[in-house]
Amino acid sequence: MIDCNNVSKRFTSFSLKNITFNLPAGYICGLIGENGSGKTTLINILSGLYSYDGEVRISGRDYCNHEYDIKQDIGVVVHGDIFEAKESLISNANYFGRFYKKYSKNLLENYLERFNLNDKKKYKELSKGEKLKFALAFALAHEPRLLLLDEPGANFDIEFRKEFNSLLREFIIDGTRSVILSTHIISDVETFADYILFLKNGEQVLFGDVETIREKYRMVSGEKYKIKLLKDRIIYLEEGRISCNALVKHDKQGYDKELKVWEPGIDELMYYIGKGKDYGTINQIL
Q1: Which of 131-140, 154-163, 169-178, 208-217 is predicted least confidently?
Q2: Of 212, 237, 270, which residue constitutes the final position of a domain?
């Protein structure tokens, strides 16, 4: 679905550097990282809103030669008011829907009903969460093959976030469509992401399918000297008052029986791999 090869974007005070990943059709990718890590910049590049260096291909097509066709197949939800404030939801959707060959008024109305949005309500009267629901309904109403979502979930109430997670799974169920979801809500990533792409300070720290990534790493807890015996398997070691915790590369060499060992969560991967990236080589860490 998406092929990125050495994609970079330079601004005055920030640079996105050499992002390379391949997301197959039929999967959800959680785009994670701190504020300022480059998530929105990458979403804007994939949406065709920014120029860039490197190569981006979506469904085998590049923006230089197939921009119109690519944008027909993309649904985008970003923060910011792109709709007409004084117009109703249905008027907004029908106006902007003219630019999409597959836009369906009936489909739009179905989503508005599902999201409990009044199609006659003016856009300016919506809350922030409702505006994002409307943007999502519109994005889905032109039947995209790729959804690019820039942190919408933070403004959804708990009940709708459950609906949102179900909706994403419905979207990819036929195996021909994919989602990239930028989010700070790690519990959501744990729930629905098949892949994760982790950015830090404009650099790609980690990309892969969640199952494989978790199999490659383990968290260990115990006495420092016992953890240090794992040597170059250590990604990052953090000292505590009583014991130490570390993220390590998992292999068949095993672990000291006095060490507590468990499979890392996404939040632990973000924290410890991010720290390891910051501190440089394993010799510097230890």
Answers
A1: 154-163
A2: 212
Confidence of residue 199 (pLDDT cuts 50, 70, 90): very high
- Total of domains in the chain: 2
Among 89, 108, 112, residue whose Cα is nearest residue 100: 108
Look at residues 212, 243, 269 and tell me which one is the last residue of a structural domain: 212
Full domain range(s) for residue 155: 2-212
